[in-house]
Amino acid sequence: MHGRDYAGVPYRPARMPVEQSLATAARLREQMWQRRTVRAFSTDPVPEQLVLDAISVASTAPSGAHQQPWTFVLVSDPQVRAHIREAAEAEEHEAYAGRLGEQWLSALRPLGTDEHKPHLTDAPHLVVVFEQRYFLGPDGSSHKHYYVNESVGIAVGMLLTALHLSGLAALTHTPSPMRFLSEVLNRPHNEKAFAVIPIGYPAPDAEVPDLVRKSLDQVLVRV
Ligand SMILES: Cc1cc2nc3c(=O)[nH]c(=O)nc-3n(C[C@H](O)[C@H](O)[C@H](O)COP(=O)(O)O)c2cc1C
């Protein structure tokens, strides 16, 4: 049934009583509906351990062939954050000046975003997520990774969930293009930037766009 390389270990977690499951699921639903993407951060410090724990949660994500094709670069040094902001704002200036195209710009208008990215220096930590498009062997040979985007997307979802449940705010920021991040952070050529995630507490006067989420009925199809 399993290949020659297969080795199993027992997996017998205690089954949660149904009442407890239902209460846990309902509480999680309430908590997760409170999550918002924050773009205005307080400069208050955040214990690094909270971020490390969230990254550790993210790295438990399922991944294609268990290749875990992700690297999380934690940037807390103010000078490096300033460098990233400067490079991101240069790219975003071009993007908002027209590179995105009218359709994309009009989709962004309700979010109130523009080329200014103060969150990159206000938030005390940035996690820059890289996807490993292929694996580099010790001899420099490259090996294919499977389902890289899907795997890294799931890991980032788990990172955002862990940060939110730990009482922190985050932004999923995807400056376009993101090549400058590989240069600033000196990443190897098998890695490609996936997202920059500023992490901290919301600024005291933070606002978020008044968005409406799809209801369960709108996203669920029962067969
Ligand atoms: C893949 C992805 C890329 C995103 N890129 C950006 C971005 O570059 N800048 C930004 O301000 N928000 C970005 N967002 C955040 C979305 O705008 C936000 O999730 C959406 O408006 C819903 O708001 P909510 O997260 O508060 O529910 C991104 C989100 C995702 C999932």
From TrEMBL:
The keyword RNA-binding does not apply. Residues 34-201 form the Nitroreductase domain. The keyword Flavoprotein applies. It holds the Pfam family Nitroreductase. This is F420 biosynthesis protein. PANTHER family: IODOTYROSINE DEIODINASE 1, NADPH NITROREDUCTASE. Keywords: Flavoprotein, FMN, Oxidoreductase. It comes from Kutzneria albida DSM 43870. InterPro entries: Nitroreductase, Nitroreductase-like, Nitroreductase/BluB. One of its GO terms (molecular function) is oxidoreductase activity.
